[in-house]
Amino acid sequence: MYLRAMSGFEGLFSSKRDVVINALEQARERGTLEWVRPLLEAFRDRPEEDIRQEIASMLGALKISDAAAVLSDALDDPAFKSEQADIIGFLWSCGFQSEDDLRAVVECAVEGDFRCAMEALTWVEELERVLDEQALLDALLSVRGALEETPKDDPRFALFESMHASLQRLERAQ
After folding, report:
1. DSSP secondary structure letters along 121-171
2. Per the domain annotation, does 3 fall within a domain?
């Protein structure tokens, strides 16, 4: 029987380590937009920490501007809820600070854990301006709601205060 070697995306999900490593090398060499979602899925699904770190390194250094939309879509996808902090970190590391992602990033912050709120705060602080008044208003309202509902002894409270101040700065700059 002839066995065809796995190539492309499916190699990321192989049970054979050498096939996974080969797929990661292909992803690194090709670096096309089509690899972003499978890499995110492999990051979410692979149990090996070293492979997850390698994938995270690639996702945090994307040079494909359209990849921002793929990452942003993943923020809204319930299948990636436990990876939201990482995804916001990938957006930030790649320099993808688009006001189009403001709603999703802030929602992840107010609904997520401390790490998610910290990554979101870092991302929001890097925004230079927001032209979409409604997106900014929605973000401000979400953070104000979080401040009202979060106990002051919750470590996220201080992050929400800082995020609120950053959003107010953006509002004044409009």
Report:
1. HHHHHT------HHHHHHHHHHHHHHHHHS-TTSTHHHHHHHHHHHHHHHH
2. no
Instruction: Specify the number of domains making up the chain.
Output: 2
**Each residue of 20-68: pLDDT tens digit?**
999 999 999 987 999 999 999 999 999 999 999 999 999 999 989 899 9
Q: Which domain holds residue 157?
A: 97-174
Residue 1 lies in a domain: no
Are residues 89 and 57 located together in one domain of the fold?
Answer: yes
Mean pLDDT of the chain: 93
**147-161 per-position pLDDT tens digit:** 999 999 999 999 999
Residue where the block lists tokens 């250094």: 61
